[in-house]
Design brief:
This protein has eight helices and ten strands. By secondary structure, it is α+β, with helices and mostly antiparallel strands. Strands 4-10-9-8-5-6-7 form a seven-stranded mixed sheet, with helices on both faces. Strand 8 and strand 9 (about 190-195) form a beta hairpin. The chain is elongated and about 70 Å long. The N and C termini lie far apart (about 50 Å).
């Protein structure tokens, strides 16, 4: 595991850890304990790390063959989800795909800094194309000037994604979209799917309200698994093409 920061040993009855003192490599600080609850906590910690770790042979094979290490991380803290999105967005060199289940969710993420992340990245990398997919019913929440100006050369509103440079917007049929999931894909290499509580979804025809992301996010999945990402890309592209066909 790449995230291990210290070492320790634990048996049925004992715990031991050692750490080199900062500034003096010749001195170590050790902790030894036989307190039952303390030992049991570290037994549980070790088992949790063991389940998440990958086998040594697999890791050696990845290094020797030059393969990337695939990961699937589940994140349950909304603050961690929001801090992860700018990192995924900034990793894109060609294309960012965005899908939001309703207008309240979109506005919630815009208020949380999504617009700023997109703007900063596309200003540094003008070749990055942003595709934003929304539901048909969401179209009523945005002005016609915003929608027509999306993907153009003018910024109509600094606080919304619609109308930003390099952002192209399409509206898909609602019966073909998951109403509880948002999606962010960078270059087909990294993906974040965000699941929401059903009770937080707004009515299709109700006026937009302010969304509390901390209360609405159930969990998120962050992965670089090619098979998982390609399955979502195929769904996104199909909805995108269908929305284009309706405009013809």
């Amino acid at each position: 595991m790449d995230t291990i920061t210290h070492s320790f040993g634990v048996s049925e009855k004992h715990y031991l850890s050692s750490k080199v003192q900062f500034g003096n490599p010749n001195l170590t600080q050790s902790i030894f304990s036989n307190i039952g609850w303390f030992v049991r906590e570290h037994q549980y910690l070790f088992e949790t790390l063991w389940k998440k770790a990958i086998p040594l042979k697999q890791r050696i094979g990845e290094i020797e063959e030059g393969h990337k290490r695939e990961f699937v991380d589940t994140i349950r803290e909304p603050a961690e989800v929001l801090s992860l999105l700018p990192k995924v967005i900034s990793s894109a060199y060609e294309e960012i795909m965005l899908l939001f289940p309703n207008s309240n969710t979109l506005r919630g993420f815009e208020s949380a800094g999504l617009v700023e992340s997109i703007k900063n990245h596309t200003q540094k990398n003008s070749n990055v194309r942003v595709k934003l997919l929304l539901k048909d019913q969401q179209q009523q929440h945005f002005s016609s000037s915003q929608i027509k100006g999306s993907g153009g050369t003018r910024t109509t509103n600094n606080n919304t994604l619609i109308g930003q440079n390099n952002v192209e917007v399409k509206f898909a049929s609602p019966d073909k979209m998951d109403t509880n999931t948002a999606l962010v894909i960078a270059d087909g290499k990294k993906m974040v799917t965000i699941e929401f509580d059903e009770k937080e979804n707004d009515s299709f025809f109700s006026p937009p309200a302010r969304l509390n992301l901390s209360d609405s996010i159930r969990f998120a999945t962050h992965t670089n698994s090619e098979s998982a990402i390609m399955s979502y890309i195929s769904i996104f592209e199909r909805l995108w093409i269908e929305s284009e066909m309706k405009q013809w």
